[in-house]
Amino acid sequence: MNMKSLLVAGVAVASLIAGSAFADVYMKGEDVAKLIVGKTIEGQYLACGAGRNDFREYYDANGAIRGGERPCQQAGKWKHYTGKWDVKDGKFCVYLGSDRTSGCFDYQVDEKGTLRRFDAKGGDVNFKIFDGNPDHL
Questions:
Q1: Which of 65, 93, 105, 118 has the greatest number of CB atoms lying within 10 Å of its CB?
Q2: Which residues belong to the signal peptide in this entry (predicted)?
Q3: Chain-centre distance for alpha carbon 1
Q4: Rg for the chain, CA atoms, rounded
Q5: CA–CA separation, 55 and 72 (whole Å)
Q6: Is 61 left (phi over 0), alpha (psi -120 to 50) or beta?
Q7: pLDDT tens digit sequence for 95-123
């Protein structure tokens, strides 16, 4: 093997190692459930846009979601809705009706306790987590 081949092989191996070192690590769906069931989350999209709402949702142990929403980053009354949650194929899934984002998502939590949901369509959301159901949803 000549020097050029060794250099190319070394760069390829380094790229593989670096790629796996920086890969996103997501929480298991069961761990997301342990973190938020019996609690309320409050979500804000990272960027407001048409049809995006701020929301808060209480996750009941029986699989029910009780939520409220209003236009993104605006004051006003909260419109109430319901949904369901479960864990499917290792992911935490939410089903909130036809006009709300539903499906199974990837999640991470940071050292400050902020939960982040990743959406393949670019609708990533940060959540604050509150004990219990302080908003009586």
A1: 105
A2: 1-23
A3: 48
A4: 20
A5: 8
A6: alpha
A7: 997 777 789 999 999 988 899 998 767 66
Express each pLDDT in 44-72 by its tens digit: 766 677 667 888 999 999 999 999 988 88
Kindly report the length of the chain: 137
Question: CA 126, 131, 133, 134: dihedral to nearest 10 degrees?
Answer: -90
Tokens 């997301």 belong to 32
> H helices of the chain, where?
3-21, 29-36
Report the predicted TM-score, pTM, of the whole model to 2 decimal places: 0.75
Helix (H, G, I), strand (E, B) or coil at 29: helix
Higher pLDDT, 3 or 74: 74
